[in-house]
Amino acid sequence: MSRPTWDEYFMEIAHLVKKRSTCVRRQVGAVLAKDKNILATGYNGPPAGTAHCIDVGCLRDRLGVPSGERHEICRGLHAEQNAIIQAAKHGTVISGSVLYCTNMPCAICSKMIINAGITKIVYDDGYPDKLGEEMLAEAGVPMEKLGGR
Question: CB of 125 within 8 A of CB of 143?
């Protein structure tokens, strides 16, 4: 029996979480963990109580907005944002936690990650947002691409 590492374990959970996404372009999942415990999860989708993109279509597609650009033109929140918001909503302290995300964070999420005190990011796939990567490096938040998927 091959037992997954903690990084593999939490990343596999992030991949399960992303299956709840209602984004028609890209499904993303996130897990915040600390001391081998899950603190919060999030997936990309619109705010609670609003229409899902799988039901009303993708605004970004209709407007021809390329991936990685103009994040404000979207009905949805990113998985990282939803994980941070869920932690805040339930009073869970995430400072010092590790973010496991199926995709590398964008610049907007990177700023939130830095200010939330998340100390490390483990991700599977890249994302076309150099500014986010640069800001995380400047703030001293290491990123690790998890291989093997």
Answer: no
DSSP, residue by residue, 6-17 = HHHHHHHHHHHH
Positive or negative: CA dihedral 75, 138, 84, 128: positive
The residues assigned a catalytic role are: 80
Q: What is the pLDDT along the chain (149 residues), one digit of tens a residue?
A: 899 999 999 999 999 999 999 999 999 999 999 999 999 999 999 999 999 999 999 999 899 998 878 888 899 999 999 999 999 999 999 999 999 999 999 999 999 999 999 999 999 988 778 999 999 999 999 999 997 54
Specify the pTM: 0.93
- CA–CA separation, 41 and 26 (whole Å): 17
**Token pair recorded at residue 97:** 């936690």
Query: What count of Cα atoms within 13 Å lies in the side-chain half-sphere of residue 123?
Result: 18
Radius of gyration of the chain (CA): 15
Tokens of 129: 């947002």
